[in-house]
Design a protein that fits this description.
Strand order of the largest sheet: 1-3-4-2
Helix content: 25-40%
Structural class: alpha+beta
Order of helices and strands: EEHHEE
Oligomer: single chain
Number of strands: 4
């Protein structure tokens, strides 16, 4: 499955717009890791626990979006975007969305 953030795919022709597709997840970290992350905010530096959590969440959201596109018969997704929001303290929602297409 080809995924691009542009509205077209260089060297390919979009033959059919299949439809809007999306995938999302809400992720939180283990309370122990959350405490360690809280301590890190005091001394500064990258909070690796949250970086890992968000990387995992982005991949899950993209995988779910891709699965939905495949179910609709698409072979590519154009205009893909990622968005995040805080659902509650220590938990974030990540959503991936785009337009599923058939490209040749």
């Amino acid at each position: 499955m080809m995924i691009v953030t542009t509205d077209s795919i260089p060297g390919k022709e979009i033959k059919e717009l299949v439809g809007f597709v999306k995938g999302s997840t809400v992720q939180s970290k283990h309370i122990g890791k959350d405490l360690l992350a809280g301590l890190k905010t005091i001394v500064g530096g990258e909070i690796k626990e949250y970086t890992e959590m968000l990387n995992e969440a982005r991949q899950k959201a993209i995988d779910r979006m891709t699965d939905e596109a495949r179910e609709l018969g698409a072979n590519a997704i154009v205009g893909m975007r990622l968005q995040s929001s805080s659902v509650m303290q220590g938990a974030s929602e990540i959503i991936a969305y785009g337009t599923a297409v058939w490209a040749e």
